[in-house]
Amino acid sequence: xxxxxxxxxxxxxxxxxxxxxxxxxxxxxxxxxxxxxxxxxxxxxxxxxxxxxxxxxxxxxxxxxxxxxxxxxxxxxxxxxxxxxxxxxxxxxxxxxxxxxxxxxxxxxxxxxxxxxxxxxxxxxxxxxxxxxxxxxxxxxxxxxxxxxx
Amino acid sequence: xxxxxxxxxxxxxxxxxxxxxxxxxxxxxxxxxxxxxxxxxxxxxxxxxxxxxxxxxxxxxxxxxxxxxxxxxxxxxxxxxxxxxxxxxxxxxxxxxxxxxxxxxxxxxxxxxxxxxxxxxxxxxxxxxxxxxxxxxxxxxxxxxxxxxxxxxxxxxxxxxxxxxxxxxxxxxxxxxxxxxxxxxxxxxxxxxxxxxxxxxxxxxxxxxxxxxxxxxxxxxxxxxxxxxxxxxxxxxxxxxxxxxxxxxxxxxxxxxxxxxxxxxxxxxxxxxxxxxxxxxxxxxxxxxxxxxxxxxxxxxxxxxxxxxxxxxxxxxxxxxxxxxxxxxxxxxxxxxxxxxxxxxxxxxxxxxxxxxxxxxxxxxxxxxxxxxxxxxxxxxxxxxxxxxxxxxxxxxxxxxxxxxxxxxxxxxxxxxxxxxxxxxxxxxxxxxxxxxxxxxxxxxxxxxxxxxxxxxxxxxxxxxxxxxxxxxxxxxxxxxxxxxxxxxxxxxxxxxxxxxxxxxxxxxxxxxxxxxxxxxxxxxxxxxxxxxxxxxxxxxxxxxxxxxxxxxxxx
Lengths: 150, 556
Ligand SMILES: Cc1cc2nc3c(=O)[nH]c(=O)nc-3n(C[C@H](O)[C@H](O)[C@H](O)COP(=O)(O)O)c2cc1C
Known about the structure:
CATH superfamily of the largest domain in chain B: EAL domain
Strand content of chain B: 15-25%
Mean pLDDT of chain A: 76
Largest sheet of chain A: 5 strands, mixed
Strand content of chain A: 25-35%
CATH architecture of chain A: 2-Layer Sandwich
Low-confidence stretches of chain A: 106-128, 143-150
Mean pLDDT of chain B: 86
Number of helices of chain A: 4
Strand order of the largest sheet of chain B: 13-14-16-17-18-19-20-21
Structural class of chain A: alpha+beta
CATH topology of the largest domain in chain B: TIM Barrel
Low-confidence stretches of chain B: 539-556
Number of helices of chain B: 22
Distance between the termini of chain A: 31 Å
Radius of gyration of chain A: 14 Å
Radius of gyration of chain B: 31 Å
CATH topology of chain A: Alpha-Beta Plaits
Oligomer: heterodimer
Number of strands of chain B: 22
CATH class of the largest domain in chain B: Alpha Beta
Distance between the termini of chain B: 83 Å
Shape of chain A: globular
Largest sheet of chain B: 8 strands, mixed, barrel
Number of domains of chain B: 3
Number of strands of chain A: 5
Bound molecules: flavin mononucleotide
Order of helices and strands of chain A: EHEEHEEHH
Largest interface: A-B, 16 and 15 residues
Strand order of the largest sheet of chain A: 4-1-3-2-5
CATH class of chain A: Alpha Beta
């Protein structure tokens, strides 16, 4: 993969999972496990945030791989109202170590910072809010490095 | 009978007819190719009947085949000496397949359909998406409805904003996007469902059951509206869906298609990004529209159109410096038909082109009788800009036949004109400019991209939409908007006209806010051409007072 091909997409969506927390946790684990397996193979990295009934995700890698993976994610009924906050070439990866970093815990208390970013992102489709989500995810994924997923 | 066996087995589609045009044999390749439903057609079947059951053919194609067979037969019956040997064979081309007709001396007619590289399947498939095409759809529809007590649901899909994406990101991106759409659609269907691309950004789905259509449509509206990342671009489109069900809404294919189309039309009219089920009253509405269209087609010829002229008052001199020509349709039975009712229809069915040309001719002819300094403003529809060359010709002819100088004509366009094929439109606008014609941007401020549009072309004039003027006296910021647009126009060197001025207070505000011209009932309502002279000669002040009183009773 050459440097020029590196692309990054940042998007938010609404969670379409309902039921008991245990079931939701299982779905999340499933999404993460699948993501890590597929993304590793496709040379993709990124992070996924789950909070306030919203997902935010950063996906980075070769353009075609990003587009293919994004398309697969669009067909997933476990979320809806996808808003792309940013999609552009990137000079370097933000999450080089993560095939899919994760922040957030099912049923966890609302993270006020995340809430502000989501509100902003859904209110209007502004490109600035893409970097806001990116920054947020960056901070959160580091904080939660210890959070273990079975 | 070895011949028969051989013919039945060949890859080429073959149909043999006797001299009465009754079937001798029809092989499997031909059956597949023509969308024949059910088992082999029986021997002796009339060609006409057989063609009617060929679901992949449309009416025109059936007729063409029938007529050419009959012609060959007539030709074949002539004595051999007088016969033109070339006429004994005929090749018909139908867009995606060909058919060869051959007179077999005294034996009848052979129809053969040469196969494409992959056994003819290609003719039924859309090469871009790999889905079935319109022809495959016709065959599937005919097959589905041929079964007794059949149930089916037809979903017609039309992508919203696809053309915009295609125009702005280019055809290769548009094509890649269509492939992604096809993929999303395919992933949402079940085994017995038929999915085809009818052409352009139109798809159709045939379900072998009537129930389940609504949840599917709901899901597709959501799914196809989700963003696409394609060839390095982000694309947002949507979909509108019309649904009709058999046998509840229609039992026959053509009717089912028409009704789904009516439902699709309703979905689009209701704001797109949604689905609509066919309802019987849609038929009534379609008939009403049809009747309006019929009347509209006759209106030009019957002289039912008139132009009225509304003066443009120059603020600095307090003089009328021009008139906007406004179209009026007086129908003997319908009465005055409001432009909002017939213009959109005229645009949709393309009638706006001849109507617009009539307006140009008429307005120029009338203006030629006015004093040299008075100009005439004519509205030109975005549809007319689709054929820029024709528009230029119409303007040239109107000016020449009236003996009017191009500098006395002003063309008013709305910003939607610039949303279409921008490069070609700009070229047309510049060509008009080259003839001395002035270009005004109408209804300024109502579109979402007004400001960027202003930069795309050096307009001579902007007309501030009446909605802002009506808010001048309120608290809602109308004043600030008018002032800001006037300042903007002045800084770009454009004349600023304020429309919809109805009160003295509004006029006073326009005068102090930097507006150059005013138009509205306060100055005068639109008048017939024979009243123009009086307005030009008259004293504006008294005319204003007199007309202001009648304004409120007349609507806007
Ligand atoms: C919010 C969200 C994010 C996802 N992110 C990814 C991802 O990064 N990579 C991935 O392969 N699948 C991701 N998925 C899962 C895909 O939608 C899909 O289920 C999965 O790719 C199917 O993979 P499989 O065919 O290997 O089972 C995500 C799903 C959701 C709802």
